[in-house]
């Protein structure tokens, strides 16, 4: 079952045309990812320090289906999917709430786990691998 994060579009999310700037969609998705990990009990600062890994984004894509404006209420769903022992994808859907609710964007990011010191691929730490597999 996807994790759901709720937020409101802020003026700072928008461009000169008054709609959410394209890159902010991915920032909103990343915010939802961090909230999903926190809800699963992972304290990010401690998690990365204890495991000596980082999990950068290796690929991202986004389909923009409708504009979002300041004040719009959103629900962002996050659904992880395993790729390899060292990587996973996150599938996002951003919904504009209201009557009727509308799908505003779909995004996907792919993450790879690497050792902090060597930058070599590493298997996902057990807690992260379990979180990815549980969805």
Describe this protein's structure.
The protein has helices at residues 22-39, 44-51, 126-134; strands at 3-8, 53-54, 57-64, 73-84, 87-96, 102-112, 114-115. A hairpin with a 5-residue loop joins β5 (87-96) and β6. The protein has one domain (3-134): Hotdog Thioesterase (Thiol Ester Dehydrase, Chain A). The model has no long low-confidence stretch (mean pLDDT 95). With 135 residues, the chain is α+β, with helices and mostly antiparallel strands. Strands 1-4-5-6-3 form a five-stranded antiparallel beta sheet. A two-stranded antiparallel ribbon has the order 2-7. It is elongated. It is built from three helices and seven strands.
**Strands, count:** 7
Tell me the fraction of residues in β-strands, as a range: 35-45%
CATH superfamily: Hotdog Thioesterase
Report the radius of gyration as a whole number of Å. Answer: 16 Å
How is the main sheet built? 5 strands, antiparallel
**SSE ordering:** EHHEEEEEEH
CATH architecture: Roll
